Amino acid sequence: MRLKGHMSSNLIKTVLSCVCILAGSSLFGIRRENYHIDEAEKLTEVEAWQYLQSFRSFSYEKDYVFRFKIKHYPPRQRSFTHYGTIYGSYDPLTESHWQRIQIEKNGYVDVEEESILKEIIICRGPFNRAWTVTDKGSKRSVSEIPSSEWNTPLIPLTSLSVFDLLAPYLYWFDFEYLNPSQVKARPSQTFKVFAPEDFGNPIQSVEMDLDDEFRALLKATFSNGENEPVKGVELISFQKTSGNYIPKTIDYRDYVNKGHKTRIQIIKAAMNLELPEEIFDFSTLTESFPELPEFSYDDFR
Fold first, then answer.
1. From residue 215, how far is each of 72, 120, 168, 249, 259 by CA, in Å?
2. How many angstroms separate the CA atoms of 121 and 275, rounded?
3. In whole angstroms, what is the distance from residue 102 CA to residue 266 CA?
């Protein structure tokens, strides 16, 4: 069953209004249902659309901050580690997820200005955009990252890119519902989504398995225009904190440069926050903000 993305906005709104209870997931958001599902059942055409939309529509009630660890495992070489911070917020007016991501230089565990390796702001939603800081001599300026550079690794040699953080495929309207399935004994539903014709990126389709209980992204395979797999992502573990389920460990694998794996692990989380709006203003990327006190976090290490 393949549903094309030319459905009218009125029809989309009508379908959404029929969904009384929404529980879903973005890349960094999981809410658990109040029931247990032993096995996944095959969905009807309407149910498949509602299921996918509920996955797209999830947001935490308030802002959050995650501290994370990135560990890359290159083939036949020693692994290396970076730390970082994600500030997150949801704008219900534009149905957009805003995140400010700081990645620190190898060996640092603080976010002082001189320790920052990469800092970007992303807007994930119906309209995906990303900005970063560029250094031109002694001058630092903010520039938007064009879609043609979304696949560039955030850290050299790693499998993590802006494309992974933006996850534009979550909002592609052209999709095919494949079947109920299982991923590591977890009941799931399998969908394949297709890039719009004007999408200026080598990745043209994504096959993804969504957990039938958590409505979380369990596994995804990214393919190019020749339907050849080029990359994969897999959710390894969950973590409950402050009444929310969040992904604790995520693996990214590079199928072109075989053997490369990058693992993101959330090591601390602070939920139910009210962060200053300026944090998500791309014009402030050259500025620093005070870090949250340690007592604000739940530590998972």
1. 27, 27, 18, 16, 29
2. 15
3. 14
Q: What is the mean pLDDT of each run of 10 residues along the chain (301 residues)?
A: 40 30 38 55 92 81 94 90 94 90 71 71 93 79 91 88 92 93 90 92 94 85 95 92 90 89 95 95 88 90 82
Say how far apart CA 268 and CA 298 lie, in whole Å.
5
Q: Which amino acid is at 255?
A: Y
Q: Which domains does the chain have, with CATH numbers?
A: 2-299 (2.50.20.10)
- 217-223 vs 205-211, strand pairing mode: antiparallel
* DSSP secondary structure of 115-145: GEEEEEEEEESSS-EEEEEEEETTEEEEEE-
> How far apart are alpha carbons 297 and 241 in whole angstroms?
10
Backbone angles phi, psi at 48, to 5 degrees: -65, -45
Residue pair 246/233 in contact (Cβ under 8 Å)? The answer is no
pTM exceeding 0.85: no
Residue from 26, 79, 37, 52 nearest 194 by CA: 52
Q: What per-residue confidence (pLDDT) applies to 132?
A: 95
Q: Which residues pair with 130 in a beta bridge?
A: 122
User: In which residue are the tokens 């039938």 written?
Assistant: 212
